[in-house]
What does this fold into?
Amino acid sequence: MSKKIIAILGLPGSGKSEAINYLIKKYNWPKVYFGEVTFDEMRARRLEINEKNEREVREDLRAKYGQLHYAKQVIKKIEDLPSDVVLVESLYSWPEYLEFKNKFGDNFIAITVYSSPKTRYERLGKRSVRPLTPEEGKSRDYSQIENLTQANPIAIADYTVINEDSLEYLYRQLDQIIKNLL
It folds into this structure.
């Protein structure tokens, strides 16, 4: 069996982390998180972790090293993992999506977790780590859609799960997809 790469996509607050954590717990698969590239750089620059600094660093790294910087860093980490299945969290841009498709072909599967803006902004305001106001959530959405072309991979994902109901409903949808993949 060739290594399968399962990317969980979605806008902030959609439930990507919930989906990833469920799959890690149930299947014991490793995860590579795109955002860790940003956090590593923020620590190196000794910047406080907040929305403003995250955005500036994300956009700065892409401006300095190109649109594929994050994808290349994450692919290196994936290749070093011994697992047959690797989860990827927070793939953002269309060029990153294409890089993964070119590298892994049909073994790259994208799953979008969708939640309405109203639901996502409520969740973002309640999170314990990096909470956002509705205005900050909307600003981040617009930035990620306009500057990172994040909507493109979300729109073309192989599967979509709706996360507007219970966690059990989210988990059932994920289980059905995984059953079809393996």
The chain has nine helices and five strands.
